[in-house]
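Much of our argument rests on the idea that a fold can be written as discrete symbols. In the encoding step, the backbone of a single protein was reduced to a row of integers, each denoting a local shape. We regard such an encoding as a compact summary of how the chain folds. The record that follows shows the chain in one-letter code together with its fold in token form:
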Amino acid sequence: MKASLISRICAYLIDIVIVTFVASLIASFIPQSKNVEKLYKEQTEVVEKYFKDEIKAETYYNRMLDLSYDMAKQTPLTSVIQILVTVLYFCVFQFYQKGQTLGKKLLKIKVKKQGKEKLTMNDLVVRSCLIDSILLNVITTGLLLFASKNVYLYGGTILESIQYAFIIISFFCISFSKDKTGLHDKLLKTEVVRVRARKEEVEEAE
């Protein structure tokens, strides 16, 4: 039986929390420069000024954009760690757990190939690049390291918009299409199904 949209969303949110926590934990061991601490302080000051109506929304947006870029430029290793943890979790771990992440295990669902084909590591890598923002993060990190500030900011914004649009369309496909699969599943011929209890499997085999 196909997994419901709610169970898929809940599993995904659990997985994102896990990945973010692990990546943040690892990044916390990286010594921060005084420049990063200064940027954090400036961000807090800008937020406070905005909520006190001391600066306009446009000024707030532009200043936060500049500070975010400066902070990302100071901590590129954090972005790399986020990408590596995401790949290890959604691709490697999920492959060896037969299509399940921790979130999927809790919700009793898993990823599998349609029909009798076996799920491969390549399936999970491409799937994660499309739906788990791995490709987006790799490209934006590359832009951060090798492109100009404007290319990074505007290019990143365009890519994020494309990523969000892809995810939203996939949600609609899962909700309203007959096969209950998202765009990424349609492209890779995968599906997310409920994990049946052993008793049910034995009865079906009999």
The chain has ten helices and two strands. The chain has one domain: 5-30+75-205.
